Every structure is written in C-alpha cells, then in structure tokens.
Amino acid sequence: MSFSSPKVTRASNRPPVLTNPVRYPESAPAPVRSKRAFLLLLLTLVLPGAAQIVAGNKRLGRLALRCTLTVWALVIAAVVLAVVQRETLLNLFTNPVTSLLIIVVLAAVAVGWAFMFLNTLKIIRPALLAPGMRGLVGGALVVLMVLTSGSLGYGAFLINSGRNAITDIFASGPDMAPVDGRYNFLVMGGDAGADRSGRRPDSIMVVSVDAKTGTSATISIPRNLQNAQFSPKSPLWGVYPDGYNCGDECIINFLYTDVTNNHKDLYPNAADPGAAAMMDAAGGILGLTVQGYVLVDMAGFSSLIDALGGVTINAGGWVPISGDDPNGTGNHLPPTGWIAPGVQKLDGYHALWYARSREWVLEYARSQRQQCIQAAMLKQMDPATVLTKFNSIADAGSKVIESDIPAGQLGSFVSLALKAKGHPLARLTIGPPDFPIEFSTYPDFDVIHQRVKGLLNPVAATPAAPDPAAPAPAPAPGDAGTPGDAAPPAGQAPAPTTDAPVITEKYLQQLAINGDAVMLSALLDNNGTCSAG
Q1: What is the 3-state secondary structure (H, E, C) of 409-436?
Q2: pTM of the model
Q3: How far is CA 425 from the centre of its chain?
Q4: 452: closest CA among 333, 291, 285?
Q5: Which of 4, 182, 346, 490 is the most buried (most CB within 10 A)?
Q6: pLDDT digits (tens, 9 = 90+) for 48-82
Q7: Domain map of the chain by residue range?
Q8: How far apart are CA 426 and CA 21, in angstroms?
Q9: Which CATH code fits 182-308+381-456?
Q10: How far is Cα 35 from Cα 40, in angstroms, rounded to an integer?
C-alpha cells in the first residue's frame, strides 16, 4: 500500500498566486503600492500600453503598444527628414491636405494618450493608496496629461491656425519654377480696404532669392517712378508699348488702379489684375521675371509687428509721426510725436510710422527705412518667436496679407528663408543714394538692368598688390599723428561745435510749429540711414 500524497495534474485547479505586487497589489505593503503607482504612470508616459500589459488589460495594452510604436516610427522618420530633406518635411506641414492629416493624427494621439492615463489610474486603484499619496498620484497624473495630451492638442491647434492662414493668404496653383536660378517676388504695401479700385501701393519692393543658397537682395522702386516698361510678353505691351508714359499721372503706383479700373480684362486668369500688372511693370523696370507677389495692408501692418512682439532697428535719424492733413493738400499739422535715432524696439504703431513717414525728406529715405524694417523682421523671425507667437502671427497675417504664391510650395520658401538668415541682405534703391534724384522722372532702364545684374551676381574683387615703390600717402587733417587736429579715440564722439544746435525732440517740434521746412529737411536728411537692430 502506497502512502504517497496525491498529485495535482491540472494547473487550473490551483488557486492564483497573489505574490506579484504589480498585478496584485492587495497584499503588498503601502510603500510598495506607492512605488507601483508611480512606476505605472512612468510606463504610460514613456511607452503607452506597457502599464496595461504588466498590470491591466493585456489586450488593450498590446493594441496601445502597436499604436505607440507606429507613432515613434513616424517621429523618427520626421527627424530623419528634418536632417536630410528639410523642405519635404516643411511641405508636409504647410500643404493644406497633409497638414489636415497631421492635425487629425495629433488629435487622435492626444485623446488616446489621455485615455491610457485614465485607464492607468484605474489600474493603480487609488483606494489602496495611503490618503496622502492619493493626492500626489492624482497631481502627477494631471501634470503628465497636460504635458503629453495637452501639448499634442496645442500643437494640433497651432498647425490648424497656420493651415487656416495659409488657405486665406496663399493661392492653390502649380509650383513656381526659378528663373535664372532665382525666385523674384514683388512685395507691395498699400491700402487694402474694401474699395480695391482705389488701392495705390506706396511701398514697392522686389525680393530676389537664390533658389539654392537663399542669398537674398531687396530692390526698392520709388512710387513716383515714371515710364515703367513692359516686356513684349506682357498683356500691357499693346496698351503701353512705349512704357507707362502718360505724364505725371502715370507714376508707377497709379498703375494698380488704372489696370483694376480699365484693363482688368487683360488678366482674365488673375485673382488680382492690378497686382499682376505691377509684377509686369517691376519685371520690365528691373530686367527680371517676377514670379509672384505679396501685398500687405499697411493699415493693418502694425498688428503683425505687435504679434511678433515688436521689431528692433537702429534708426539713423529722427523720424516724424506726421500730424493730420486737414485740407488734403499735403500741408500737415505739426507732428504728434518723433522716433528718435539709435537702437529702438518699435511696437506696431511706431514701426508703421517709421516705414511710412516721408515728411521733409525725399521718397527714397522712406524706401530705405522700409528695407530696414524688412531686414529686421527677417533677422528676428527666429523659431522660438514663431513658435511662441504663432497663433497671433497667423491671425494677423491672414488679415493683412494676400499673395499668389502657391501654398504647396511654402515649405521650400520657408527653407530658403531660413538659409537667407545666414547671409547678408543686399540692397538697391532706384533713387538716392544709388541713383540721382531726377532718375525717377527720367529713368535709364539699361543702366538699371546692369546695376541689378551686378547686385545679384557680384564679382569677387581681387585686391591689388601694393606697389613698394609708391610713396606713402600723407595723413589727412584729423588723422592720427596730425598735430593739433587729432581724431578722437575709437568709440568717442567728436566734441560738438559751440554753434551747432542740440537736436532734441523739443527743438524739432518747435521748428515744425514755426514751419521751418528748410531746417527740418537738413536735420532729417539722414533718417534713411538705418539698419536692423
């Protein structure tokens, strides 16, 4: 007779082993339960689904883990694209169709991640925790959900804001091709009110960008330039074969209104015939092919500057904020304020006046200041600024900007803009200081074309070897070493002469009240000599 104990042949008849504190926390001491709670939260943060596999619904965990690995694969692919093909990644975010898909994916991941955190809280079973620990775990859960789902949701919101702005501002046409290796865009600033037939661009500028390097140049065209030329390919060639030369009324900024009112049938496929005509005129003047335009409502320009948080420039001279013109004759009341020389951070209101003011100075000083504002905006448009103020920038931009640049090509142009930040911005003004004052009335377009070619294709200068036989030049009066007339030390301004007035805002304002236009013209002559701050 055998007295051996019976063997259990079926494992399913055994009671469950409750010694795994992660899955069965009931019998675990309080410190272990607390550690378990934070461990499960950490797993859900790093690898959503892992907490469910080790302590909850394994089927749900496997599904979530598959989704998590797919998302991580997409993130890795995006990083690789950012390194090897940045333009492709930017195009994905700026294209209206793919950006919508990205928004949907981000929203879905945000909701799914939040659900997994809530399911993890259920697995933690807060009732098993010490009373004080319940609050800590709950607070940690809220913080992690905000950092994860909240960030993803906010990212989807920003992309949607950008998508809406892109749809409002840019066109949905085919991609532009560079001409002679460059993209040339006409940038205009004017009144973009509801009465489009009366719009006259006061600021006219062509931005030329090298399609490979991003090296850029801006060429300002004065609003009063006459006899604008058109190429034989332009629809306006038949109307103005000798140029826009009907006299003083045919300055270039009248062309927009002229075409909008009288010749819009020449541009049947253009959403804005006036802008299309201005592109043809700018191309004929400069000898370039202008592929697209950007039109900025100067009345709303200040909101865009404010959205950027202001713009910093180094103002070369005093700039008046003009008073009202009650009779409409150009005779303004005394200024309501002044923008001082030196480094200034301008808000939207003052940046707009800095770009528009032309009282007591030539038109060309204003063109130079507009170039300064543009260069400063490009310099300060860093990723941190764009990211933190993106929604405000997108909202302001959609209200003040219109363009025919293809939305699907924006990624390429954004990439070029980022490259442009690494190069100096070349400038040319079709007027002083680059051309004589009378050039606007009697322009020589062959000369302009040659200057533009030289600007866009500079020839590297080879320094001449010094001639050892040549005598050293005599020092000029005021040079170091000249007795009795030594130059001031570096960084120290020359001592003012006793008869020169101290230029202050009060002094300038009194001159304006007195109507001393001659003195004001002399004192403000340098207010176009500025630079990006």
Answers
A1: HHHHHHHHHHHHCCCCCEEEECCCCCCC
A2: 0.72
A3: 15
A4: 285
A5: 346
A6: 999 999 999 999 999 999 999 999 999 999 999 98
A7: 19-169, 182-308+381-456
A8: 69
A9: 3.30.420.590
A10: 9
